[in-house]
Structures are given as C-alpha cells and as structure tokens.
C-alpha cells in the first residue's frame, strides 16, 4: 500500500512539474512575442517611408513607359514586384504589434467565417485537385471575438496546409463544442508533416520551413498572437509523411481564459 502511494505521489509531482514547465514556456514565448512586436513596429515604420517613396518613383517611371526601352521597363517591373514583396513583409511586421486596441469583441459565427475564408481559395485548391473536407458542428455557439483577425488565422492555416500538401491531398476542418465555455477548431492535412525538432519553433517570428523567398516566417507568429488575444490556445501535432494538425481552443466568452491543461488527452479533433 505504501509503495503504491509513493508511486502515486511521484507521478502527481511529475505531472505538476511538467504543467509548470509548460506554463513557464508559454509565458516566455508570450513575452518574447510582445517584445518582438514592439521592435517590429519600429522597424516597419522606419522602412515604410522610404519604401513608399521608392514605390511611387517606380510607378511614375512605368507610367512614362514611352521614354524607356523594353528591357528597362522589364527591370522596372521587377523592381515593382520586389517592393510589393517588401510591403507585404512590412505589413506582416505591423500585424505583430496590432493585437491591442480599442476595438470591442463582437459575436462571431465561426462556421460561417470558415466557409467565407475557404471561398477565397476554392479555385486555388480546385486547380491543384486538393480535397477540402468540412465537419462543422451545427450546434457550435457564436463566440465573442474579432472576425477579421480570426479570418486571418484561418487563412494563414489554410495557406500553410496548401504549401504542405500535394495534388490529391486532403485538408479537413473540424469544429466542435468541447464544453459549455469552449469551442475547438481543427485544421488537418495529409501533407509532408513537420520534423519533430521543429514543432516547438514554428510559432517563433521569422522561423519557416519553406524555401527562401516563399515565406516570411510571420504567418504562424501572427496566428499565435491572435489566438492569445482571444484568450485561447493553439497546439500542433505532426508526423513526417502523415500530415499536420493544428488545434485551436477558443473561449465562447473572450473574458474567460481557458484553463484546461495541454497534455495529449486535451488535443482532440
């Protein structure tokens, strides 16, 4: 009897230590995102002014195309393409610092928001023969939140799933009410998967597994920040060659923080 009690005590102590370690890691990650967000905002504003001047000059040259040869025009168009990419990166940097403000949360229909987001990418998925499977709970309650930001979360996860999958692969989105105060949103794909040693880094700003020039490494950082602003949690599970699953838990009432643990049993879709 004493041996069993000792084993139980050790097990409970170990679980509590793991829980505290996870909470500490979350706090460190959140603090790091806040600091990087402030730095990013400063850098973005410094870049924006000269970038706007450069973009304006390039556009002016293109409008005077009669004054230049075809090769010069081609070079101007290349410059314009590069500046637009820089603008996109700057916008992403600014997103890291825009999670706080005076905007008030409003009722959001998660299922309708998912459908609206998918409609923006229907042609893209169809062209690649990718299957989109929706399993949306008809009993899912509306939540209080920020619709535009949540749509950005869904768009980021769909883009990531698209990049990680090949023709004929499947992307599934599942919604369900986990309990009275929490809804769950899962994005599952049958793509290439993420190496195990990288899953702990994927929410870090500027970290990316994509080829150079194909990603800024900010999409999942922004996703993480938005979910946190909604007092929710986001988890990832992946297996090489089998695919990746992102599980988002959001409180129905943004004023109430989700308090359940993050052990594997809480990761359900």
TrEMBL record:
Domain Histidine kinase as annotated: residue spans: 42-254
Domain of life: Bacteria
Keyword Transferase attached: yes
Keywords from the named record: ATP-binding, Kinase, Nucleotide-binding, Phosphoprotein, Transferase, Two-component regulatory system
The UniProt record lists the keyword Phosphoprotein: yes
GO molecular function: ATP binding; phosphorelay sensor kinase activity
Pfam families associated with the record: HATPase_c, HisKA
EC numbers: 2.7.13.3
Recorded catalytic activity of this chain's protein: ATP + protein L-histidine = ADP + protein N-phospho-L-histidine
Listed name of the protein: histidine kinase
Lineage: Bacteria, Pseudomonadati, Planctomycetota, Candidatus Brocadiia, Candidatus Brocadiales
